């Protein structure tokens, strides 16, 4: 199944709201990782956003999955990018 590199861009002005929503966001992520639809996820250390590796049939399915994330639902992710990614070497290849 194809992998998609999904990036979230965060805005500093929404930090408090994002922090308040973090437990629901992380619970949702953990369930998706356990189910296998998200392979790995984590924030950028500079606080600018996050990277998710999503396994989905196509771009539309990846976007539909992300649309369920409590951070996305609450509007604390003002911008996402979704790009199909083809790992050639390593653990995900």
TrEMBL record:
For this UniProt entry, which residues form the secretion signal? Answer: none
Which Pfam families does UniProt cross-reference here? YCII
InterPro entries xrefs = Dimeric_a/b-barrel, YCII
Q: Where is the YCII-related domain?
A: 4-85
Which protein family is named in the record? Belongs to the YciI family.
State the name under which the record lists this protein: YciI family protein
């Amino acid at each position: 199944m194809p992998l998609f590199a999904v990036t979230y861009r965060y805005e500093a002005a929404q930090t408090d709201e994002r922090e308040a929503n973090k437990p629901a966001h992380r619970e949702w992520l953990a369930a998706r990782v356990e189910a296998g639809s998200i392979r790995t996820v984590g924030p950028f250390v500079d606080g600018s956003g996050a990277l998710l590796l999503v396994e989905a049939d196509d771009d539309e399915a990846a976007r539909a999955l992300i649309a369920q994330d409590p951070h996305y639902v609450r509007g604390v992710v003002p911008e996402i990018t979704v790009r199909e990614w083809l790992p050639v070497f390593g653990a995900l290849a």
